[in-house]
Write a structure and sequence with these properties.
CATH topology of the largest domain: Jelly Rolls
Radius of gyration: 24 Å
CATH superfamily of the largest domain: Regulatory protein AraC
Oligomer: single chain
CATH architecture of the largest domain: Sandwich
Number of strands: 13
Shape: elongated
Strand content: 15-25%
Number of domains: 2
Distance between the termini: 42 Å
Structural class: alpha+beta
Helix content: 40-55%
Number of helices: 9
Length: 266
Amino acid sequence: MPSLVAIPPTLPTGPGPIPELLLSLADPPRIHWIGVGTHGPGDPRWRLPGSWCLHLYDYEATLHLDGQLLAIHPGAAGVSPAGADLHYHYHAPSTHACVHFQPAPGRADRVIPAMQDLGSGYRRADHDLREAVAWHASEPRRAEARVWDLLWGLSRAARAAPHPLIERARREIELRLGEDLGVGALARVLGVSHNHLTRLFRSQLGTTPVAWVRHRRASRARHLLTHTSMAIAAVAAEVGIRDPHHFNKLMRRELGASPRELRQRG
């Protein structure tokens, strides 16, 4: 049985806030069963001691999850932890794709609502889960990877999320490492001032945008130096540095060795 538990561990009886569950997505989940099922009409009650459940709903129904009343609407995704008491009420025959799974062991670092409306993303999620259903008999690892990706999309980090502008800035930096990327240009892309962006980086990451770009360039360059046969000058150009002296200085500052020394160390 997974060691992960719902939070809060005891759910209230009757309507209330949608519970949030804590699980690990450090590695793919293990699928115990996956398929498309039809239930109802009626009021079935289940408990799966060793399996979490993910359901994608395209109908109206209700669910009591450990006594907590949750409304089911078309376009909803529902997740329940292992050992939960699931008491459904189906108004009519109701068909859905679902998977019973065990999350990866380890530190539970992702939060996922017990019920959420996927809106326009429902059709894509339903398509992906049904593909996993079709793959599971012949390609179980591929099915697990698809379910893993779905769970990532439905969850969020357990720790406080970084400021949205920081996330956008980091994405832009990764996509533009090979360009002549200055803080002023990055700030203009993000629609903020140079000073505001610098203050956010200091408060959220404890560094500056310039230092973050240096760190990411050095990290990418180290990989290219130690895992490819690219010429050192080509590696420098790949991370946006055209001056060999500047590149040498960057690598010594960030990694404590010259590009040639890093390559020799492998």
